[in-house]
Amino acid sequence: MTKSAFDKIAAGLEDAIAFAEGDAGRGRVVAPLDVKAIREATNKTQAAFASTFHLPIGTVRDWEQHRRQPDAPARVLLSLIQAAPETVEKLIEKAGL
Q: How far apart are CA 86 and CA 8, in angstroms?
């Protein structure tokens, strides 16, 4: 039996309430990334960072100014850049992007 939209929303709300009351098993907290620190570690300007890693410069600015948070795929890319920026840059070049 499939759950109705109402049932799914109610279950999510119950999880949120339980998490707020201290039940860490009912939620997931994603630590924010310091995009500015990641970029600065590459010694690139916002424009150069955006160009190198094929990101819209406005998106990089929004992340750095905390107007927006990177979504899951962007978090993966940023984490890889943080771990090995030269390798990611070479892989992008090799892929012909």
A: 43
CA distances from 61 to 25, 47, 64, 77 (A): 34, 9, 5, 16
Looking up tokens 């939209």, which residue turns up? 5
**Amino acid in the structure at residue 70:** P
Q: What is the pLDDT of residues 3-54, one digit of tens each?
A: 899 989 988 899 889 888 888 787 777 788 999 999 999 999 999 999 999 9
**C-alpha distances in Å from residue 27, one per residue of 17, 31, 73:** 10, 13, 20
Main-chain phi, psi angles of 2, to 5 degrees: -85, 150
Provide CB contacts within 8 A for 42, sequence distance 6+. 49, 52, 81, 85
**SS3 call for 25:** helix
Residue the block writes with tokens 């750095």: 64
pTM, two decimals, is 0.72
